[in-house]
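Memo subject: From amino acid sequence to discrete backbone structure tokens
Action wanted: Derive the backbone structure tokens from the amino acid sequence.
How to read it: Take the token row as a discrete description of the fold.
Attached in line: The record itself begins immediately under this heading.
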Amino acid sequence: MGFLVDWAENGQVCLEKFERSEGGYYDVILMDIRMPVLNGYDAAKAIRALDRDDSNIPIIAMTADAFSEDVQHCLECGMDEHLAKPIDVGRLMQVLKNYIRA
């Protein structure tokens, strides 16, 4: 699809990569929820709490946790969207188009 992707094996690594990046380097974060070290909920809250202009980066939850309370918890933690696994690639592309500018 032409995306350049960085991969983080857990939420702490995701947070650190974002913290070390130049402002505006990332367009969107695809966040799993159940990760070791720092879960997706806490990683999203930590990103939102950073003192940087792009801490409002779109964060999209991608998780098997698909009950309405799971969706609500993602939104309460600062995520912008929730996509349930298995991921529908067509739906993912629609969501990404909403957030990524050419």
The two ends are 13 Å apart (CA to CA). The longest strand covers residues 59-63. The mean pLDDT is 93.
